[in-house]
Amino acid sequence: MLDRALLREPLVFLIRFSVVAGVLYLLRTEISRVYLSLVTAPANWLIGEDSGAVYLREGHELSILYRQLGLRFAVHDIIYQNLLVALALFAATRADWMWRLKWGGVAVVALWATHVVSLFLGSHVIVWDFVWSLPADIRAELLPRVAARFPVEQDWLFSRLFGVWHTWGRQSLALAVWVLAAMPMLRRWQAGSVDENLVGGNGGT
Description:
The protein is about 75% helix and about 10% strand. With about 200 residues, the chain is mainly alpha-helical.
């Protein structure tokens, strides 16, 4: 028979996580505005001026402009849900505030680095996805201009890295950081549960 304490703690954690995630979701516009200001500048630095691509931030909206090509695309929904999940994971964990701030900060910095790299990869992937979607005659006209700034031989690798990471990468990274940080607490909690069971068992003999 399962110990009720073993079932109660995960349930309480899920409730705390849901509440924190819900509050953060309501504040997502404000969080997005601040966070975008922290990722666009380093992403544009990585891209460089030679490509002619630049990310533009307007409040909590993000777009990419290809100046020499006369193209502009909205890329707003690339960042925020996994960031909110990571923050909620650490905020909901029953631990002291120093632990939450330390490991929550580690998770945010790790996600920030991946977001910067994703924006860099995205500057390549977005324009090539657009080119491949064009009719053949228009594509043939635009392709040399795009290839001069974004080498076509990189498209296969960048597209797959971009897709796999967006599907699985960030959520897995946030969870991995949380598990790594929580392992000592989980061991102590497990040891405490075992000790309580032993005491209870001895008391019943």
